[in-house]
């Protein structure tokens, strides 16, 4: 591609759990180059899941240099980069000083559950349903930032006292890029003290939790230009000074945009390490029994509400590692086993959502037989992910209609077996779209293109989302799947009922 064919490009980064997915996107919304830079997660104690902000920064720098190098090789000069935008993993925070230096080497990420005691103590004073209905924070409460801050206040008060800012993952990177402090509504809505209806920090919740609002970043629209690269950072990234940086959004909301959820009552399915069904709507979907989790959308006037299974994709990866196989090879083995021949697997190996039984719940294998081999076990995990997501669809259907066609994104969308199994079990068409592996980065890129005025609306994004593969439900599998799902639901109830006993055994 020659430089003359590209009027403007933007760099988009998706700071995920496993690493940074970065993309160079042109003003048509086409992804020109991509790269993935991995970074590790530490597990120093039970329930502690930590990453180093320095690793996030390294990934941004490395991926920028790789992308611009590839662009030069393809005739796209790096001076065409007009803006940068980030999608950031939710519920992470960096306590840092006025110079943006982190006060700890590694910080809790979204799956860190160390703050259980702090959350429980808070709900002795404030009814949990009242908190949930105000914030929409439907993950287990111990995962939310305000309770992690309370944990630090108890165990490391020097960190809380010495911090000038508490910044989210992408907001700390944005601050490093520009020197400017800001967040957006979507990321702020994962704080644990955000008023969904008012779309602002909730002063009463912050006061009750002892969090100083002065240390939180101001909230600006997700497509706002918050600043430009400093000369020092531009030199480090190999970019021109003055490249604009857009506020960006939380990963759930950026992925929603990148999957096409820019209007009400659209739905997508994420198939990564964790799996979820998300719907866009003008009002949040709130349910005090099942706890859908809600984020403000990066599109003004909308919310995204979702239910998930935390460890679906991780359970598939775990089994592949156990078998010492590549995931693709294991799924091929699973595909060769006969449908209906597998046991039942409840894929909550890494804990679950409130609907699944919370952080204490663990996985279950039911109906295991001496005749079962690796193929049947692999198929069982795939089917378990599908049955779990069918349960989330049933819960969401109590509030919104489930569309006949659902876009799937993430690594699992590359598996024909998983996609067809989902179509059969959900009784819906499951479709792949271009760039389905880069939905969050594409959503962030769309925000950048809106922010710098390259786009007036989202029609260029919609043009990039025509289905490339469609998996339709097979009527021949309906009866067998219904019977297997009944056994799955019984096994899932067993997993929830025995979760406290399992935790007691693990902590002895």
Characterization of this structure:
Residues about 1-5 have low confidence and may be disordered. Helix content is about 40%, strand content about 20%. It has 17 helices and 22 strands. The protein is globular and about 65 Å long. Strands 1, 2, 3, 5, 11, 12 and 13 form a 7-stranded mixed sheet that branches. Strands 16-17-15-14-20-21-22 form a 7-stranded mixed sheet, with helices on both faces. Strands 4-7 form a two-stranded antiparallel sheet. The protein has 2 domains: about 5-250, ATPase, nucleotide binding domain (Nucleotidyltransferase, domain 5); about 260-430 and about 475-508, ATPase, nucleotide binding domain (Nucleotidyltransferase, domain 5), CATH 3.30.420. The chain is of the alpha+beta class. It starts with 8 loop residues before the first strand and ends with a helix.
Gist of the model:
The protein is an alpha+beta fold and 508 residues long. It is built from 17 helices and 22 strands.
């Amino acid at each position: 591609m020659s430089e003359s064919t590209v009027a403007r490009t933007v760099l988009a980064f998706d700071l995920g759990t496993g690493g940074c997915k970065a993309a160079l996107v042109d003003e048509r919304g086409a992804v020109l180059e991509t790269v993935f830079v991995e970074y590790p997660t530490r597990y120093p104690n039970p329930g502690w899941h930590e990453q180093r902000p320095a690793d996030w920064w390294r990934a941004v720098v490395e991926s920028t240099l790789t992308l611009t190098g590839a662009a030069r090789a393809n005739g796209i000069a790096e001076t065409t980069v007009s803006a940068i935008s980030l999608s950031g993993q939710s519920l992470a925070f960096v306590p840092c000083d006025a110079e943006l230096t982190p006060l700890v080497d590694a910080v809790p990420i979204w799956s860190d559950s160390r703050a259980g005691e702090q959350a429980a103590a808070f709900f002795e004073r404030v009814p949990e349903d009242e908190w949930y209905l105000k914030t929409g924070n439907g993950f287990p409460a111990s995962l939310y930032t305000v309770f992690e801050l309370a944990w630090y206040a108890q165990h490391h008060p020097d960190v809380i006292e010495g911090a000038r800012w508490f910044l989210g993952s992408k907001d700390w990177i944005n601050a490093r890029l520009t020197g400017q402090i800001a967040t957006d509504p979507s990321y702020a809505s994962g704080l644990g003290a955000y008023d969904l209806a008012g779309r602002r920090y909730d002063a009463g919740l912050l006061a009750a939790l002892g969090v100083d609002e002065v240390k939180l970043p101001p909230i600006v629209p997700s497509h706002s230009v918050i600043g430009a690269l400093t000369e020092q950072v531009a030199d480090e990234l190999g970019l021109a000074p003055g490249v604009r940086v857009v506020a960006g959004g939380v990963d759930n909301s950026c992925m929603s945009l990148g999957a096409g959820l820019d209007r009400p009552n659209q739905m997508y399915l994420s198939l990564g390490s964790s799996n979820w069904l998300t719907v866009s709507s003008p009002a949040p979907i709130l349910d005090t029994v099942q706890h859908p989790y809600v984020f403000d959308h990066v599109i003004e006037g909308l919310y995204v509400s979702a239910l998930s299974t935390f460890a679906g994709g991780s359970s598939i990866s775990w089994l592949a590692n156990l078998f010492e196989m590549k995931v693709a090879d294991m799924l091929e083995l699973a595909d060769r086993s006969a449908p209906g021949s597998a046991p039942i697997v409840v894929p909550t190996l890494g804990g679950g959502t409130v609907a699944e039984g919370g952080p204490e719940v663990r996985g279950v294998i039911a109906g295991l037989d001496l005749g079962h081999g690796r193929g049947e076990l692999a198929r069982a995990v795939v089917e378990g992910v599908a049955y779990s997501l069918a349960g989330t669809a049933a819960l969401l259907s109590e509030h919104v209609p489930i569309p006949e066609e659902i876009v799937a994104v993430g690594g699992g969308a590359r598996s024909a077996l998983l996609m067809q199994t989902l179509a059969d079990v959900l009784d819906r068409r499951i479709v792949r779209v271009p760039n389905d592996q880069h939905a969050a980065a594409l959503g962030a890129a769309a925000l950048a293109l809106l922010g710098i005025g390259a786009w007036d609306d989202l029609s260029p994004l919609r043009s990039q989302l025509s289905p490339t593969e469609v998996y339709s439900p097979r009527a021949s599998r309906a009866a067998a799947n219904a019977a297997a799902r009944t056994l799955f639901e019984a096994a899932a109830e067993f997993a929830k009922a025995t979760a406290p006993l399992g935790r007691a055994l693990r902590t002895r």
